[in-house]
Structure formats: structure tokens, C-alpha cells
Amino acid sequence: MAALRPAYRADLEAGPDRFFEPTRTDCPWCGGTELSTRLRTTDLLQHKPGRFTLDRCGGCGHTFQNPRLSPAGLEFYYRDFYDGLGEKKLGDTFGARTGMYRRRAEAVQPYIPAPKSWLDVGTGHGHFCAVAREVLPDTVFDGLDFTDGVELAEKAGRVEHGYRGAFPELAPELAGRYDVVSMFHYLEHSTEPDRELRAAREAVRPGGHLVVEVPDPESRFARLLGRWWLPWLQPQHLHFVPVANLRRRLTELGFTVVAEQRAEAHDPVDLLAATWLALDHTAPREDAPWLPRRPSALRRALRTALLLAGIPALLLATLLDRLVLRPLAGRLRLSNAYRVVARRD
């Protein structure tokens, strides 16, 4: 922490303006100008300084970060989240999601029972690919990501080949190579979702399939929980695409949507995550290198006491998420994500 503090202090002393691009007056999805503010919030996970706004287009319903993070801002807010200080914590979290990874792999089996090749875009450390290989043992899984996690995934044997870089730039060398291309909670991180979809069309062979899973901005939880809804994930999530918009764009790119799933893509953590975010926001900050100094012993003790006092609320939220709301998520439009499977014609 102490070693990283000077670099963060220098970044913050340079001022926040360079972390943002100019504010847009039109929708990046449809070009419409009927914009309204949907959400204002802060970084509720790392608690790095900054305030972030999500606008919604009245024409097509697309929700997007406005102003959007600049390249310098993306580097600053991603730093020590998936790698560095956050690598082990996030790696352990993603590595424990075996059931969800199996369901994602099984989602394509009705349409392509035994794909020979699969590219997972935004693969991180490749945990999905490692589990999916158990479902599809004859499939070769490759991974692509812009962080060094994909290189670690290749070294660990979770993916056959790890491609590091931007998907649109790498797509020409991957053209027509894959039976399946997946984007699980990747598109919302991209600066230009349309370019990513075009890259996917290039990498999928004719007759192959694209699987896209993203947060559902039309979820009722998004409205009910407000800034405490985990999938907003500011400032990392830049775009929230309504399913109708995605279907139309895929059709324009020459895909046929063969499946649209909501309940199957739901991750039953909404109340638990909202409770944790509220507790974590209320408690004194834990140590982080972007803070000017290490919290005192008293503040650390107060944080521990408050989080311990919140354990009953966290347990109750977990029970409600998994036992009460999970079976009703699809019917009550509470699903926090949707999944689309599309065939390239």
C-alpha cells in the first residue's frame, strides 16, 4: 500500500478532468438527442475518488456513462481491480462460480451440441473456460482479454491460446475460426459495443454462434435499488443495452437470434450486494493506496464493528435472494442480466 501511494497521489494531484471525455449530447447507440439523467453515483467498490453519471436515451432506451472515462480514466479506475492488489480477491471470486459457468456452457448445446472451437472474449483468468471444458470435453477453448489475466490463464492451462489486446484489432487474424464466440459480461465494459459485435461476426464462422450476456437495464431491481444495484458497477460499466436494441443490431449484422434468456442468466445476489455496498459505504474506509494516509487503528476498529453488526442483514439478504426471489426472477422481471444466443447466417 505504502509503495503504491505516491503514484496514486501524483495521478490525483494532476486533476480529474483528464479522466473524462467531453460530455455527449447524443446517444452513442442510435444518435438520438433526447437524453435524461438516469443515475448519479460514486465508485462503491474501490472507493476511488470521482462522481459518475449514467444518461438514458429517450429514443432507444440505451443507458450509457456520460461523460465517459477517457483512456487515462480507464487505466486509473481499472488499476488494482482485476490485477495488482485485486488479482487474488477477484480470482478467488470468479474461480468459485462453477455452477454459473456450467450453465453458460450448456446454453449453446441445444443449437450446437459439440463445437470444435470456442473463443471467450473478456475471459479474465479463464475460469469459465476451465469449467466449460468439463461440459464440452472435445472443444478447444481460447481466451481473449486486454489484461495480463489471459496470459496467466494460458500458463495455467485454462485456455489453449490466450490473446491479449483489443478484440476489434485482433479479429482479422481470428476471422472465421470459431464455432462459438462468447461475451459474458464483456460488452458493457467496451467503449464501442458496435465494434465489438462486428469483431464477433468476423471471428464466428458462418453457421457458428455468438453468445452475449450483459446486465439488463430493464430489470426492476435496477430501479428499486438505485445506485446500490451491483450491475451498475461504476465507473467500469460504460454501456447498458436493452435486449431489443441488441436483437436489432445482431439482425443487421447477419445473425439470427435463436434464444433469449433472462431467468437463466440471473445471478441471485442483488439484495446481498446492495446490503454489502451500503454497509461498506457507511463504514470507515479500509486501507487503499489512493487514500492520502493509512486509516487509524480506531477507524479500522469501527469498520470491523460495523461490518460485524451487519452480518444478520447480509444473511437475511442472501436467503431472500436465493430462496424467495430467485424462483420468481423471470416472471417478475427481476433478472439482473439477460443472455442472447445468435447464429451467424
Properties at a glance:
four-stranded antiparallel β-sheet; N-terminal domain of TfIIb; 345 residues; Rossmann fold; 35% helix
Structural class: alpha/beta
CATH level-four homologous superfamily name of the largest domain: Vaccinia Virus protein VP39
- Separation of the first and last Cα atoms: 52 Å
Mind telling me the CATH class of the largest domain?
Alpha Beta
Total beta strand runs:
11
Biggest sheet architecture = 7 strands, mixed
Overall, the morphology is: globular
Strand order of the largest sheet: 6-5-4-7-8-11-10
- Named CATH architecture of the largest domain: 3-Layer(aba) Sandwich
Q: Fraction of residues in helices?
A: 25-40%
Average pLDDT over all residues: 95
Poorly predicted regions are: none
- Give the radius of gyration: 20 Å
CATH topology of the largest domain: Rossmann fold
**What portion of residues belong to β-strands?**
15-25%
Please write the string of helix (H) and strand (E) elements.
HEEEHHHEHEHEHEHEHEHEHHHE
Domain module tally = 3
How many DSSP H or I helices? 13
GO biological process, one term: methylation
Organism: Streptomyces antibioticus
GO molecular function: methyltransferase activity
Pfam family, one: Methyltransf_23
